[in-house]
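Supplementary Note 3. Input sequence used for the single-chain structure prediction.
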Amino acid sequence: LMDRFKLSELQATAILDMQLRRLAALERQKIEDELAMVRETIAYLEDLLAHPEKIMHVIKTELLKTKERFGDERRTKVVKGKVGEFADEDLIPNDPMVVTVTKTGYVKRLSPSSYRAQGRGGKGVTGMTTKEEDEIDQLVTTSAHDNILFFTNKGKVYQTKVYELPEGSRQAKGQAVVNLISVDQDETVQSVLTYAPKLDKLGKLDQFVFLATRHGTIKKSSLADFANIRRNGLTAIKLEKDDELVWARMTTGSDEILLVTHQGKSIRFSEKEARPQGRDTIGVRGIKLAKNDYVVGMETVTTGADLLVVSEKGIGKRTEFKQFPKQKRGGMGVKAMQITAKTGNLVTARTVDESVEELILTSAKAQVIRLPLKSVPKLSRATQGVILMRFSEKDDKLAAVATLAK
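The predicted structure, written as discrete structure tokens, is reproduced below.
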């Protein structure tokens, strides 16, 4: 082929690689037409390259066509000014989030939509895969851009962004807190608090952090004291021997506080009875405790809202705040729930109002149920409540409760 038709080796190889039926099917006229078209194109391009004015004419024609097709008004706005820096928040959606922390220090965030709503008394679904000895301890609803404060049993506080927490599925275990914040080996996260970092006109955070320890000590500090926290944390409260920090809440400075204990006691008092103190101080007495009792919840009293209490055995109720008499801090308080062998001791106490639509209940063995708040009845202080959650395993018990807004 190469000698007879003066073909190159590449051309000859291409012809020999073709199947015989394809060679027979080739139309001579089609090949000649394609050859003529190629020669015509070559002649046009050679002439174009030889005449620069023709090149400019082609460019002008193509630009006019582009203008006609895309010549609408500018869709972006040009603003004169200094070039700013992009923060992580500018690139991350501020979506609603649920944050969970286990007793052995594993944390994760996930969307509230991961939990489907069910009726009261259901068994729920598996919330995460935990070690046999692990339990879910904290569960809060927040937003991706919020700051999150981790308060530990040693009275220290650490801070990071919610979006910096590992995002996982409902069954995922999460990541160890020690990989996110510099906690000591014998230090555990006891309470989690989130807030949107909005500054007032003076450039100071105009809220307070109200703390309660296991033994009933309370303390109020300005939120501004927690604005710049080093990676190794800061002291939030000085602790007496054998005491530990349990709870933290955000307050306005003129709120009323309600402390609730494991044995079902509660006390309501004005936060003004506790003057603001620096971080490195002990605090004052909030409630006088009976033997073996300890604080399990602290809430701010809200007009028109209720107190939700839930016990170890999944029994809960709502009680109007007006049923809790205002007292001086430091007393023994009044009943928040009738504690019996059927109910078990209290696990949590939460404020709920019209903005709350659903609850997420999590057991110690990672069983989860999501149910409407309206399915929880309003009852008086001295009552037991109703079954909100049944457990798949007899030795399981309630670990945490979170609220979801409408």
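Residues 125-133 have pLDDT under 50 and may be disordered. The domain at 95-405 is CATH 2.120.10.90 (Neuraminidase).
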